[in-house]
């Protein structure tokens, strides 16, 4: 298994180089890997203590961010090293101010792992959610550098828990972890079953992040004027299948207005969405010059405001559920509103729990969308009951970051 693992790492690198002339993401990855040690030599070593936080991509960064900011707030003398595996994470967050350095994670070969740790010399390492790198885990343990997994979630079908021969090899990787901060009881039970009692159920640090965002929400006069006295549906991070369903509902329900915040805000996609809607449409970037009250649809054709837009919604729809998976449901739920999304949500623990509590509703076809939206918009009492449930749900889950800080730094 060791040989196959090492071969897989080198093969991944080879394929990335091979396709890089034709694929922007692969090209960014290859360039980042080539320059990573040159940049590290300039920045390290440092005299101060270094805390290393690793995130696969943007989603994991949102889980790691509350932890990074808590460390910088409570231990300002610590240096924070933030690494990404994915180019999409690195390129978006390479200038993140709370980290003292942002870098690609060097590939998990023994030589590169040793070189990386020789340069950075972290006092402690945090890996967020889904990153299990054999050589990093083993070398951190050999150097007695404590490694903590944050907001991790395990499922029975993962190889760690299988009786197949490779299962033991994967379980051995976990021996390098000092402590697991897991999201739920199932993850704790699975770890206990294979002999890892070193866990704490803390929940998901993203709850802390969305609570911070909601507390710092912006007033958006354009959205407020657009809504007026109408019922408002906000469709966040929407994709084409989501939009086609909701446009059908819009046509049949003149009392409801919709804000679309599409996942992709490039002009071609926004123009496609405009052409799909047979109703008066206004774009957010030109809304100050438009007749907002007469418009039925407002399209958020920019980034950075969606989390504040949700505060004006009576109901939210989260996109992505007809593709690879839904986007962030918590950004909407923090405002105590009902949430709808497509069928691909089962990999997202918070969405599953919202559904189980009757606070969120998966839909698979237009008739289900119509029935559920009619029910929600037609009954203030139903929405009030859901609001109370959302408030309780969020209250139960906020605080994971401080639990981790207390465990790791003995606060």
User: Percent of residues in beta strands?
Assistant: 15-25%
How many domains make up the 3D coordinates?
A: 2
Shape field: globular
Measured between the Cα atoms of the first and last residue, the distance is 41 Å
Here the CATH topology of the largest domain equals Rossmann fold
Mean pLDDT: 92
- The number of E-state strands comes to 14
The secondary-structure class comes to alpha/beta
> Approximately how much helix is present in the residues?
40-55%
Under CATH at level 1, the class of the largest domain stands as Alpha Beta
Q: Can you list the strand order of the major beta sheet? A: 3-2-1-4-5-6-7
- Sheet with the most strands, sense and barrel status: 7 strands, parallel
Oligomer: single chain
CATH homology group of the largest domain: 3-Deoxy-D-manno-octulosonic-acid transferase, N-terminal domain
Note the total helix count.
18
Ranges where pLDDT stays below 50 over 5 or more residues in a row are none
CATH architecture of the largest domain: 3-Layer(aba) Sandwich
Write down the Rg: 23 Å
Description:
The protein is of the alpha/beta class and about 400 residues long. It has two domains: about 1-210 and about 400-410, 3-Deoxy-D-manno-octulosonic-acid transferase, N-terminal domain (Rossmann fold); about 215-395, Glycogen Phosphorylase B (Rossmann fold), CATH 3.40.50.2000. The protein has helices at about 1-20, 25-45, 60-75, 85-95, 110-120, 135-140, 165-175, 185-195, 205-215, 220-225, 240-250, 265-275, 305-310, 330-335, 350-355, 365-380, 380-395, 400-410, and strands at about 50-55, 80-85, 100-105, 125-130, 145-150, 180, 200, 230-240, 255-260, 280-285, 295-300, 315-320, 340, 360. The strands form two sheets. A seven-stranded parallel sheet has the order 3-2-1-4-5-6-7, with helices on both faces. It has a seven-stranded parallel sheet with strand order 10-11-9-8-12-13-14, with helices on both faces. The radius of gyration is 23 Å and the shape is globular. The model has no long low-confidence stretch (mean pLDDT about 90).
